[in-house]
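User: Before I run my own analysis I want an independent prediction to cross-check against. Here's the chain; please return only the structure tokens and, at the end, one sentence I can use as a sanity check.
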Amino acid sequence: MWSKKERPSCKRDAGRTAARYNGRVMVEEGRPLSFAEWFEFAVARCQVFIGAQTPTEFDIVTVASNFVRSLPDARCPAENLLLRSLLLDVADRWGASVHEDLHQRANSQPCDFEPMSTLREFLKSARGNAKQGFLEWARYFCAEFHRVHPVSPARQAAAIIRQHAGERSDVSALAALLGVSPRQLRRAFLQTFGVPLPKYLRRSRLLRALELMTEQPGKVEPVALDVGFRSKKDFYRVFRQFIGMTPTAFMKLPRESARGLIDRTRAHLIRLDV
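Assistant: Structure tokens:
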């Protein structure tokens, strides 16, 4: 759909295009969008959304649902065909990315699962609604992916922690939710990822704290308590340990530097490289 070299400029153009058009009403200055304008808007929405969010094996159906809601509806068979082509490309990219990411994180041997084979579910809906076909593919991909790669309690725990980073949780609560003992969960998590579960929990809370501190600059203590730390002192200790500076020093960083630090922390968390 676009080359890597084109991506930076395309992203800026996509943002301007998305801002020009109203995706729900599909009108501009009181008139319906032309076919060319509709297509330009659809491509722009794809670029903006993909650049902002990448699905995981656990949330791909939810992300896909949010994605199609952001796209314009097809008003004729030709637009539906073009939208289907765009979504088919997205499905191919997402499937390959999720599968590759799992094997990189788990450092496992190659398997027989072929993400491209799941696209047949999308192709079956050739004469149907493009958005519905994309959602059917996401559900089918998720089911087939987990059939070949069974989800262990450790991987479920990691997903829950990432998805609810700002909520208070502990090992005992996670273990009860997953139907195992805290000791079993700790052991399984360490064996699967090479990372102690409590350490992963602290890193997840810290990531949410970093995001809040950039979104809502202010006092440190309310943020620390909001993301689940017991006290300001505990928060400062963990912050120094993982980030290498105090929360006060972090809030003084230029916005670009702060975002870079957050992105690196998130990458470590998602790939379990801590």
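Sanity check: Residues 7-148 form one domain.
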